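job 3f2a | input accepted
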Amino acid sequence: MKKVFELIRNQHSSIYRLALFILAIGIGVYIMPRKKSFKYEPIEGKPWPHENLISDVEFSIRKPIEKVNAEKQQVQKQKSFFFTLNQERQKEATEKLNYGLERFASNKLENKPVLRSEKEHQKYVTELQKKIKTVWAKIYKKGVIQNTINIVDKDGNYVVYVDTGDGSDAKYLSKFFTINQATDLIKKINISDEDDYKESVNLLIEALTHNILFDDHDTEIHLENELKKISSVSGKVEVGELIVSKGELLNEKTYLKVISYQSEFEGKQISERDNRLILVGQTLLISLCFLIIFLFMMKNRTSLFKDTSALKFILLNVILFLALARFSLFFTNTYLIYVVPFCALPLVIRSFYDLRLALFVHTITIVLVGWLAPDPFHFVFIQLMAGILSVLTIENLYKRSDLFISVGKIAIVYFITFMGISMITRMDVFGQDFIVYGFLLISAFLTLFTYPLVYIYEKLFSLVSDISLLELADTNHPLLKEMAEKAPGTFQHSLQVSSLAEQAIMEIGGNALLVRAGALYHDIGKVDNTLFFIENQMAGINPHDELSADESAKLIISHVIKGIEKAKKHNLPEQIIDFIRTHHGDGMVQYFYRQYVKKFPDKMNETEMFRYPGPKPFSKETAVLMMADSVEAATRSLAVKNSENVSGMVEKIIQNQMNDGQFNHASITLKEIDIIKKLFIKKLLNIHHLRVEYPS
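job 3f2a | predicted structure (696 res):
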């Protein structure tokens, strides 16, 4: 037991990393649905490359979705419209007419023409009333139908359904009046007197109303019933029947048979034994995928592999997108998986790490998600093409325009790949379902959420993206403003070092923004004791003259510790603090060490008090900063800054650092160091070039 505890204590970090992977595998297996997977992937228009497929169950053959949709469109196009006879409205209209007619007759009787006898006039008014009632009766014998937008352009032979109280009966539209037709009939009333004609027409038109009203409820119910009658199957396959033979071309009919069998096969209830086998199979496959990520990081990204925050970040992203894909399957439309912005995954990883890692993780994730997607090969092909393009077309995520342009390119790649697949498999430009193009467009648009996602990850995992580095490199940052005010010499030195280091890292490959920001902050520990550093001294006053060599060395060395403290106080990221820690490595303060040895020759081996605390640089970026910092400071001290002196100084300083083993932990080659030396010499000569002496 004691040995077990010792093993856990000594290997706790390795055990923790292994536990993270096991946890990720467990979550991945839990996310996966427990269902049978058809071992073949049928492709319409291609020969069947497998053995003869014989049905072991009875199943129905699905109709093509396009055919079902076409039948639905036809039913909707031939939609029947239902109306209801409303006796109350007709009764109210008749009462309104009768009331008006009484007033009309009473008024006429009171205003008898002089030349007409009483008897003749009464007969005339009675005739007027009779004509008005006759027209009214003729109109409502047929009825006035509500002329809705649905029937406004239909001819008289168009059939509608009218419920008169005993159920709906089919009737021609010509059997009814519309308001316009009824109005035309009213205007044809046979009354010779112009004033009486106008009054009669107005009386009838004012009382006229629809009595056969459109019934939206019955219309929609009937349409739903008709749509339900459309069959989604076009035949049956019996048990033992041959579905497709080896080498047979998968035409539309055969392809539908195969995918119908696939649906039946995957939808069958699975036994407890089958469920266990599926679980074991999924565990094996998901474990293999995570093992590949594990080995890749262990062999090729050792520093990231040892960083548990980086591991958690990468594994969380794989699980997150796997979970989003699984969530999309809860909806009836399985193609909703195309809405998930998988292209955001490589962009998010690329924001913090290198291109190769981003593409590797994206590939493994898409292969895993392929087990959930409809038409897995097509899905994997589409997402891999778009994901690769997304990281290849964005050099710097901090440029917002680049991200918007990349979203457009991703959408184009989505469309081209899906269209190409549709042409090959379905001989159709727009594929099985036009809505998939809409889903792909939404997915491309959702890639814009990479920005807020990057910000969240920065806070969760203490990571630094290019966007944050750009903000840190702004000279208006409070720490840099304080340095410019209190230690202007150190500030200028830092600017020169950042320029040199950035140029060097761009030549050999690395994170230019990171080295630039790190260089700007590497000497912030000098702000509190500015006069003890030569670049800030003026008027020839040097406070070290009053101190012993070991005291001076202690003050000089302390700027590293003070810088770390100051950086942490201002919440600078660890990646920036690493530059402060390592910019002198564990090298010696040579000047004060030599002074000390001159005074105390017998204490030559007491070097510890003259050494920086370290650690040594452990990356290209930190190694380049150490070189840039040393050569920039040393070149300032040269009395004559010509090519020979500058070259000699650069060669000597970098060679001494190499001899001291300062770059042993950094992944930098001799060839790259040689490139850096040449670049430094060229840049320093440009900085310190001699100027022409102008006449006074």
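job 3f2a | The longest strand covers residues 159-163.
job 3f2a | closed
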